[in-house]
Specification:
Structural class: alpha/beta
Helix content: 25-40%
Shape: globular
Strand content: 15-25%
Order of helices and strands: EHEHHHEEHHEHEHEHEHHH
Length: about 300
């Protein structure tokens, strides 16, 4: 289970990145559940609907309808309230959040109270949860602290920006280390074209392991997964970062291990700046029961699934 988090100043939206990443994972045969827990900006359901030429109404199928069902959260109930997006060989369920700002805050608190239920669902369908973090008082902070893995989307135009991210994470209790093996995994993805701060220095300032850098791209092009000439470089990097974050999402499953000592080692070595993030990409299974089939088919273009 992975939380994708937009930090202050990020030119990429966590909802758009998380949904697009989930589509990549599902496109190679994985079973994925995307949860929109963003609380700022234009609602993702509206932006995704416009980009994909479809209509997603969360009050009919989404987090609002799931919450008002007032039933124990499990995989079967979640399936009843998700849109199923066409992804080729795999399966992607999308659980869009409320459109109203107050409803988004309620949904965030509701999810935080059910992290243990989400962990059970994650055993069968890997969860990508999109959120943001702007201040220590954000409603998202308790939810993010409860997730097993986080990837922060943050700019690195200056050392001050990275110091602000570190201070915010520290104020929210996200940098506290746990001595047990289930401690939270945290990573950094630098967004934007600035090269003002190098990889090793960025890791040293934030105490977050750098998994890659992503250039700017329009939100619509990202949601449409347009890999034309203008988006070629972005998606080349995005594919690589997505695989690295897939690995991160599975670290606490006992498949592989990593700790902050690697961050300290990375800041001391002389690895080329072009070699972003971890050196190896692993292909992992998500634990979905073999033979499990989807309950839904993807909505046709222009149609709403109900």
């Amino acid at each position: 289970m992975l939380g994708v988090v937009s930090a202050e100043g990020s030119c990429l939206d966590a909802g758009s990145v998380g949904l697009s990443m989930a589509r990549l994972w599902a496109g190679v045969g994985r079973h994925v559940l995307f949860i929109d827990a963003t609380t700022v900006g234009e609602p993702l359901a509206e932006r995704a609907g416009a980009a994909m030429r479809s209509e997603y109404r969360p009050e009919i199928r989404g987090l609002p309808s799931l919450i008002t069902a007032r039933k124990p959260l499990n995989l079967s109930l979640t399936a009843e309230h998700c849109f199923s997006l066409g992804t080729g060989t795999g399966s992607l369920w999308a659980l869009f959040g409320p459109n109203h700002p107050e409803g988004r805050q309620i949904a965030t608190r509701w999810l935080e109270e059910r992290v243990s239920d989400l962990a059970e669902i994650n055993r069968q369908r890997t969860i990508v949860l999109a959120s943001s973090l702007k201040s220590p008082d954000d409603a998202q902070a308790p939810l993010l602290k409860a997730l097993p893995a986080l990837a922060f989307l943050a700019p690195a135009n200056s050392r001050e920006e990275l110091n602000s991210l570190r201070s915010l994470c520290d104020a929210c209790g996200l940098l506290a280390m746990s001595p047990d093996s289930s401690s939270q995994q945290r990573a950094l993805v630098i967004v934007g074209d600035s090269a003002a701060v190098g990889d090793n220095e960025a890791m040293g300032i934030t105490k977050l392991y750098l998994e890659g850098r992503l250039p700017q791209i329009t939100d619509e092009r990202l949601l449409r997964m347009q890999r034309g000439r203008k988006g070629r470089e972005f998606f080349r990097r995005f594919d690589r970062v997505s695989e690295r974050l897939w690995r991160l999402s599975n670290l606490n499953d006992g498949t592989v291990s990593r700790n902050v000592a690697e961050v300290s080692a990375a800041t001391r070595n002389n690895a080329p700046e072009g070699d972003r993030g971890v050196g190896a990409v692993l292909t992992l299974t998500n634990g979905s029961p073999e033979g499990t089939s989807d309950r839904f088919v993807a909505p046709r273009r222009g149609e709403m699934e109900v």
